[in-house]
């Protein structure tokens, strides 16, 4: 089946940088702080850390293993590893679903990536100077109501990503992360330093690390699991495809720990860049999605060198977004290229064209198409626009389904010897523990969350 020899990462470090680039994204810097804010701080952080350790790391290991075992793209990986099993055609579908999911995610992610680019430009050109809170809300609303603005910046993010993808693994993806990740890290350190200098650190520590146990409930667990899936790029073929480019001699468990550690570290650090500013200015912690695009610009405007830091902050978001969009775009391209129907360049263009249409619909769903709502399914869905719907179905629903399927596949279907050999842990306690988690812990928990997602939950 395979017509094209797959490129590989040049080294374990190159993979690590790309995988961290994928994991660290809008989920860490934009979403994590506001979800922590909405869910009462320390309690959420504690549950989140537990979820990353208990499910996150074993699942990253699982997906990397499925990807690397035969060193082929995701759908073929599922097909080859279920060779000779009665359920093979089902697993082909599982592979297919895992490749479709990131496309759904990109349908909304590209739009938000566009917002971040637009904000860099707006601050640079002084459009956010001398504004008070209500006015930054107005700026944000104006952007949402302008199809041209949304589509322009969204298109730019599709083009940048498509260009990187079309150049291939070494000349495209690796090169991009080699430039973007160090810059991202430097900006983050600068921002935290700046925040620390302006006070509010003690309150931030207390808020993030003093769990109020009474606030821990099923909803916290649900939110934390969803956040961990999204943040670790699980359930979306990204880890499958990045794993398939991983040289055989590199240790998967070590890489999985490295990715999970770095990703969680950046999420926490983002909290330390944002919350001190919120505390010293006496602003609400639970302003939700508005936190970054509406609340922060007011403060940047009032702080010394605020404009510079505002630009840096949105650049940080933009870089983090781009290193994630490439990882969401790659699985489909990798599959198309493998079939030999398209060259990588053509495949990048075809996928990009489709994604541009989808993200275009998302962008329009906030203005000209805002009256369109899906019918049926469940109550949650009834009031959504296309962008919310894409997010809900792909990031909340399908990611869990794909993650569950990956765990069942490697835990129950694929011969034990395959994962035993690929993980390189020997047949000791560590391997047995990993296997126990993906066989007996992940399926019931993910299954429960999926039932809840469909709307028959008990919470
Ligand atoms: N992990 C990325 C983020 O936190 C999003 C992502 C999800 C990327 C799934 C790839 C696959 O923003």
Produce a short descriptive summary.
This protein is mostly helical. It has helices at residues 12-23, 26-38, 42-70, 74-81, 88-124, 133-145, 147-166, 169-197, 201-209, 218-231, 238-244, 252-280, 290-302, 306-338, 344-364, 379-382, 386-413, 416-423, 429-456.
Describe the structure in your own words.
- The chain is mainly α and 459 residues long.
- It has one domain: Hydantoin permease.
- 77% of the residues lie in helices and 0% in strands.
- It contains 19 helices and no strands.
- Helix 2 packs antiparallel against helix 10, helix 3 packs across helix 11 and helix 5 crosses helix 17.
- The longest helix has 37 residues.
- The mean pLDDT is 92.
- Bound molecules: phenylalanine.
- Phenylalanine binds next to helix 1, helix 2, helix 5, helix 10 and helix 14.
Keywords:
459 residues, mainly alpha, Hydantoin permease
Tell me the structural class: mainly alpha
Rg over CA atoms, rounded to whole Å, is: 21 Å
Low-confidence blocks of residues: none
Mean pLDDT: 92
The N- to C-terminal Cα distance equals: 46 Å
Fraction of residues in β-strands: under 5%
What is the level 1 CATH name? Mainly Alpha
Named CATH topology: Hydantoin permease
Helical percentage = over 70%
Quaternary structure classification: single chain
Q: Helix segment count?
A: 19
Shape: globular
């Amino acid at each position: 089946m395979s017509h094209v020899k797959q490129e590989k990462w040049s080294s374990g470090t190159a993979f690590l940088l790309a995988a961290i680039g994928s994991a660290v994204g809008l989920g860490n810097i934009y979403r994590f702080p506001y979800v922590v804010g909405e869910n009462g701080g320390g309690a959420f952080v504690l549950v989140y850390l537990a979820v990353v350790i208990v499910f996150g790391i074993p699942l990253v290991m699982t997906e990397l293993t499925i990807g690397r075992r035969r060193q082929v793209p995701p759908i073929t990986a599922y097909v080859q590893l279920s060779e000779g099993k009665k359920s093979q055609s089902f697993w082909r579908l599982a592979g297919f679903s895992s490749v479709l999911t990131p496309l759904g995610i990109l349908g909304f992610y590209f739009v938000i990536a566009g917002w971040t680019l637009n904000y860099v430009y707006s601050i640079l050109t002084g459009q956010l100077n001398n504004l008070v809170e209500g006015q930054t809300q107005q700026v944000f609303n104006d952007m949402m109501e302008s199809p041209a603005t949304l589509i322009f910046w969204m298109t730019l993010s599709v083009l940048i990503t498509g260009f990187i993808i079309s150049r291939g693994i070494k000349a495209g993806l690796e090169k991009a992360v080699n430039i973007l990740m160090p810059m991202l890290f430097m900006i983050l350190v600068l921002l935290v330093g700046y925040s620390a200098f302006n006070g509010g650190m003690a309150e931030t520590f207390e808020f993030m690390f003093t769990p109020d146990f009474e606030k821990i409930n099923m909803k916290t667990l649900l939110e934390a699991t969803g956040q961990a899936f999204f943040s670790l790029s699980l359930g979306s073929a990204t880890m499958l495809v990045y794993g398939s480019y991983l040289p055989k001699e590199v240790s998967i468990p070590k890489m999985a720990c490295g990715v999970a550690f770095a990703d969680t570290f950046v999420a926490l650090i983002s909290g330390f860049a944002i919350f001190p500013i919120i505390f010293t200015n006496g602003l609400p912690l639970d302003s939700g999605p508005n936190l970054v695009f509406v609340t922060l610009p007011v403060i940047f405007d009032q702080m010394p060198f605020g404009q510079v830091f505002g630009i840096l902050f949105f650049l940080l978001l933009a870089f983090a977004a781009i290193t994630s969009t490439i990882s969401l775009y790659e699985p489909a391209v990798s599959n198309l290229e493998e079939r030999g129907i398209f060259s990588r360049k053509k495949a990048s263009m075809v996928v990009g064209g489709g994604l541009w249409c989808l993200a275009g619909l998302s962008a329009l769903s906030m203005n000209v198409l805002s009256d369109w709502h899906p019918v049926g399914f469940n109550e949650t869905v009834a009031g959504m626009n296309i962008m919310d719907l894409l997010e809900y179905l792909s990031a909340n629903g399908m990611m869990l389904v794909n993650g569950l399927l990956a765990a069942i596949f490697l835990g129950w279907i694929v011969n034990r010897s395959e994962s035993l050999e690929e993980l390189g842990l020997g047949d000791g306690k560590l391997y047995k523990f990993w296997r126990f988690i993906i066989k007996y812990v992940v399926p019931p928990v993910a299954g429960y969350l999926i039932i809840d997602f469909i709307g028959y939950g008990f919470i």
